[in-house]
Amino acid sequence: MPGGPAARGRRAAAWLTAACLITTAATCWSAAALAQAARIKAGPKAPPVYVSYTTHDGDTLYDIARRYMVDPTDWALLSRLNHVAAPRRMPAGIVLRLPFAKLRRDPDAARVIAMSGPVEHAFRTSPYLPLKTGETLVEGDRVRTGPNGFATLELPDGSYVTIAQDGELDIEKLQHVALTGAGDRVFELRHGEVESQVTHATRRDDRFQIRSPSVVAGVRGTRFRVDYDGSTQTTAVAVLDGAVGVDPAIQASGRGQRAAPAPGVPLQASEQLVNASFGNVTRSGGAVGSPIELLPPPALAQPARVQDGKTVAFDIEPAAQAVGYRLQISHDADQLDLVRDMRVSTQHADFGDLPDGTYFVRVASTDSHGLDGLPNVYAFERRQLGLDASASQRAGSRDYKFRWFVSNSQVPTSFRFVLARTADLSHPVVDRTDLPGGELVVSDLPEGIYYWTIVAEQFENGRFYEKSSPVRSFTLAR
Question: Are both 180 and 316 inside the same structural domain?
Fold first, then answer.
């Protein structure tokens, strides 16, 4: 190499410096490219959200941080953010900015207001125990129901969450912001169906969400159902009132990178906005389903009749496009205190026996997507009144003896006997009312075919009840 040792040393040093610069530039370019790729993948970072607080007499930054911030030492953050040099001397009327993400949140509790059938609860990983009406549940509690098991939770703001049979629901978040009072309520639906009646949000940062492995359904005041089917990994959302924002759930595999909406995000920012009388169906890992109009409410045949038979049964008027029907029986019209839930593919539903009382039945059509449509709700009376009757001819005569009795005999009962020549009992030959006893003899009947029935009549608690025996016939010959 030309030149002396000093010159050769200077050239070597220059070469090493240039090599280091090239290596450093390449490394910096690679890091910048990775950071840019990460930003593209993660999407634009949301700007910080702030909440305003107006100071009162006697306020200090120390007190404000202690009352409203997660970390009491955040008074220093508030001092820098609001350019407050004297944290102990705060005149009234100053508007401060507090970062929403650092505000303190206090726990809330849900109360079990109604339940029936097998229902259990557990806190986080603890064993399941039977749930009772009146108990309170908190963040971290899990609820599961068995066959014909139902539970309804009341939240502090008056919202209701009803878990249907064979369901499993976790309470992920149940808290409120100490400064604003805004509620943060997030539920994880692991299996089955949950129906929510959510009071209308009064604060921008209120949040109510039902999450399943497929979607996140967020609302600000509505009534809606979310049903997750683990066998098909699909979630059905049906909106009865208001609107629901539906977004894809974050998948562990990396698909569905959109994050669940945070408090304060409007529903219009959701991937799919589902309005009242519509629903959608979404498969886990797939795109959010498009809105589907719900089927109109079907009608019951003779919904007002007293359910006085051995079982409680209903007939449904055929509905267009329905592939099946869903019927639910509850003690209340809002279906918060459920006792039965049934799906049928025909126009007849038999619930078996139920205790006497006043109930409400809700019926909806199910479409080919598996969505339950808009419901009709009917009140009905369950009153078991067994009525048996028999007739026999007296030997060697044209006299007929009719006998009857009722199973609910502790209630005063009067009877009506009708005998006619036609099956519709028009133009009766005998029509006796207010019969006190359980038998009647009819004598000297001409030969021919006769039809007859017994009607039991009861009056109790200001209501009139009656039940007729089946119309029977006999032939009288010489």
Answer: no
Query: Each residue of 122-158: pLDDT tens digit?
Result: 999 999 999 999 999 999 999 999 999 999 999 999 9
Domain range for 449 is 387-476
pTM across the whole model = 0.77
Alpha carbon distance 467, 170 (integer Å): 47
Residue 207 falls inside a structural domain: yes
State the sign of the Cα–Cα–Cα–Cα dihedral 327, 328, 331, 334. negative
For 18, the enclosing helix (H) or strand (E) is helix 5-42
Nearest to 363, CA basis, from 306, 292, 315: 315
Same domain for 373 and 455, yes or no, is: no
Question: Taking Cα atoms as reference points, which of 359, 413, 348 lies closest to residue 382?
Answer: 359
Three-state secondary structure readout of 414-437: EEEEEEECCCCCCCCCEEEEEECC
Q: Which helix H or strand E contains 113, and what residues bound it?
A: strand 110-116
What local confidence, expressed as pLDDT, does residue 461 receive? 73
Provide the β-strand partners of residue 273: 245
What distance in Å separates the CA atoms of residue 236 and residue 229, rounded to the nearest whole number?
A: 8
Confidence (pLDDT) at 47: 80
Contact 299, 376 (CB under 8 A): yes
Give 359's contacts (C-beta < 8 A, 6+ positions apart): 329, 330, 331, 339, 379, 380, 381, 382
Q: Which residue has the higher pLDDT, 470 or 461?
A: 470
CA dist., res. 425 & res. 240, Å (int): 46
Are residues 198 and 241 both part of a single domain? yes
Backbone dihedral angles phi then psi of residue 115, each to the nearest 5 degrees: -165, 155
Q: Are residues 402 and 361 in the same domain?
A: no
Q: Determine how many CB atoms are found less than 10 A away from the CB of residue 15.
A: 10
Residue pLDDT, tens place only, 273-315:
999 999 999 999 999 999 999 999 999 999 988 898 889 999 9
Q: How far apart are CA 265 and CA 25, in angstroms?
A: 41
Going from the C-alpha of 210 to that of each of 141, 236, 290, 401, 420, the distances in angstroms are 15, 12, 18, 66, 62
Could you tell me the CATH number of the domain that includes residue 404? 2.60.40.10
How many domains does one find in the chain?
4
Q: What percent of the chain has pLDDT over 90?
A: 67
Under the banding of pLDDT at 50, 70 and 90, the label for residue 188 is: very high
